Amino acid sequence: MIRLNPKYIKILGMIMISILPTIIASFLFLDIDNETNVNLTMSSLYTVGNNYKQQVNNWIEEILFTLKALAYSNPVKNMDRDKMAGIIEYVKANKELYREIYVVDRNYNVIYGYVNQLTDFRNEGWLEKAFQGQIGISTVRFRGNSAIIEVAVPIVNEKAVVGAMCASIRLSYLNDIMEDIRLMDDTVEGYLVNKEGIFITESRFHPDAVGREKVDVKRVKLNIDYSRETPYLDYRGEEVYGIYFDIPFNNWTLIVEKDKKEVNKNNKDIVKIGEYLTGFEVAAMALLQKLFNGEFKNIFSKSIIVDKELNLEFNLDEKGKKDDEDDVV
Where among 212, 230, 263 does a domain terminate? Predict the structure, then answer.
């Protein structure tokens, strides 16, 4: 029977314990490629942002479709106040985003709906655009922690613009869309700003950002256009990776960002795993050394004694055989 020398078992064991953690760590550290990590982050931000850009655009299109449908109805085209009331109130009751829906004729008279008596429509460019046969949209108006816009579409009767179908729209619904971004990934920040860079939706970090927080839209766009893989400072002064989408609706911008420290967090976790593996390797080698110097050393000593006894018996047998041969001779 073949017996293994404890010395070789010791060497083999130490080699295996040394190599195994290294092999495991090597596979894990293959993922520590910062460039790849950033590219994956940017791809994820684009996918998320593009999805919510489409949701915002769909929301806008739904508003315009509803107002155009109202403007096309006979009671509205004929400026019949009593008959249009039922249709308009039905829409308001089923769509909470409408703060108010009202009809204005070419003489700036409010035919139906509630409007502040002090409002002077003659100075409203968005209403004038509707009278010119186009869609008119006001700038964002901030009231406390809420944002509102006015939208107007032309009312056409027998090929002539006779008034405008108008609506005062609450933008708070857009907060739900931005909240969905954070529900998908709580490390991602998404928000909408107007052309001045003022927040028109809430911030993940500043819930009261609407009308109060502001970003330098031009600087953000320049940074992203120059290199999407290079982080920049956001409105909090934190380094982030980001992407933006132009919303074809009154020069709004959708910005989607992720903190640089969150992007690098995975790498740090893997480095910690490597540190733990290294610690395990050192502890295991120390334990193995202790075992070999103690119990295994005794086993090794016993095997040497057995070897000597076997060798002694073998020598005695050989001597006996030789004496017998001499007697025969």
Answer: 263
